[in-house]
Amino acid sequence: MDRVCRLLGFAAPSPRSLAAALGSTQVAAFRAMARLHDDGWGAAWLEGGGADDDAVHTRRSPRSGYGDPALEQLTDGLQARAGLLHLRLASSGMPVQPENTHPFVGRVTGRGDVALAHNGAVKPAARLEELLAPASRAALAGSTDSERYAALVRERAAAAGGDLARGAAAAAAELAPLFPASSLNAVLLSARELVVVHVSAGARIPHEDFDASGIAEEELPVGHRTGYYQLWRRRSEDGAVVVSSSGLRVDGWEPLPADVVLRVDLRTLEEQRLPVPVTRGASAEAAPAAPRVLPGARHESQGSAARAMV
Asked: Which domains does the chain have, with CATH numbers?
């Protein structure tokens, strides 16, 4: 289970680096969060001009992204028209190995390859695996609940005629009452669309993981204690869309509402929001409301040279 992770997704009208889409200071701040989320990183992206058969490229590393030049090169130099980035902090006892590193990729009829990165824990994973068809279970390579969640989303998308956003919404609506204390937040990428799932109202903020990290309280990324599972959205004047987990400076951004799936059409950059009809059990623990983020709030990474405004 990978309950403590960070997510970032973007879609743009033309290929650009993540640093150009988000800003170099913000990207440096996101990379600095790998000091806490240090059990690997992964990315998926599209390089082409918008054809339905564009390949979804991926890179995954079980190494910490903190100070990793490969991650810096990818965020600052790679030109892409859409992509996602994931920083992992594995739950206790979960192996840190390539097979457990996000994003997880599989094919959906009518959509081609689909990459999914997840922030949350859906446990017990064996119960989640029971929901999968035999072919999906046989294709599993690792031990994470996130890989099983990705497989279920692909199954539900196939059942929806290849509609990735509706498949993600169906999977989230199915899982939320079964796992009411879980976060199902995720970012998905296909050749046609970027999809963001924000379903995490019952998830408990993992304060014990922050405490065990050894990072001083004032150096924790902004929002981690009060709005860890909140997702934020920003749309630029040229239509580019960026969605991020907490930890960045978000003045001028919009908090995504709870229990919604956001779809961004990569050909037009039009956005559609699909409500997720969620029924949670009485045991669900409500997450605290997203905090008011003040301009100038800081995330201080290790050492003054690595300090960045977020």
From this structure: 4-309 (3.60.20.10)
